[in-house]
Amino acid sequence: MSRLPRVLVPYTSEVVEEIRAILDGAAEVVTSTRDPKDMLLHGGDAVAVISGRVPGEYILHAKSLKMIQAVGAGVDKIDREAVLARGDITVCNSHVNAEEVAEFAIALLLAAAKNIVPSDRYLRAGDWRYTYAGLSPNREIRGSRCLLVGLGQIGSAVAQRLRALEVEVVAATRSGKVSAQDLASEVVPFTEIEPLVRQADFVILTVPLTPETRGMVDGKFLSWMKSSAILVNVSRGEVVDERALYEALSTGRIAGAALDVWWRYPSQWGGKNSPPSRYPFHELDNVIMTPHRAGYSQATRKHQIRFAAENVLRFLRGQTPLNIVDIRRGY
Description:
11 helices, 331 residues, 33% helix, five-stranded parallel beta sheet, single chain, seven-stranded parallel beta sheet, 12 strands
């Protein structure tokens, strides 16, 4: 009797058991930490790995590896050069959390525009400075213009919600083309984004991190924004130039930002005493900070795990898996 193919799942025991139940009879599920040596020790002969963080050392030395299934949409923590060097690995992602990320993006936008966080913070200390006719009146969302940088699954879900709030939506994408043109009144390629940045009241970033989008929101981009504009980032921290954004916010060059993604992360997910940036964004009242949780809800988490496991099952059965990523482009 031949041995079942192995699938490596470098996650907590709870996640492993959920995936094991779905792959029961089709694969042997093994687990490890995210250290590449430990991954090789326990899953060096795996044909598939379910993780959004796969180091090059593992990819290059796990000779049986044929599939990498990210749990979320991002694949920027999967070593691109190692995958390309191998040339025989299929990489897939998941868009199950798109609706949840979109809701969170809208929540961040509203919180920033309506001064929710500083109002809460000061009133807890008995300080009423943000009361009616006090500091910083609310920004109106209705009738405003929002630029979406990226109009994929998440961007499209954000656009639908913005339209319900009577916001004019414009967008920029890599090609300047989208499948659902009715979501935005104007769509341009990244190379023609400047006029839309200058006209926008709000800018929301939903693009994947690719060689093309890394650092695209730099000092020049921020200088195009209105001084009253607010930036929301639910994509990846590295899409934005860290220093340029801090300077734009600390000097009042732009009105505010709401950030769910960062440039620095703890070595252990959910760890403590790990500042998310080299710069003291936490000292600025015009910044809302959340710890990369936009796509996290009870239902979404379960659906992501199920999708990942079922997609690996498709692959193991010889079927074409869903959501195959062009690793060269990064999406």
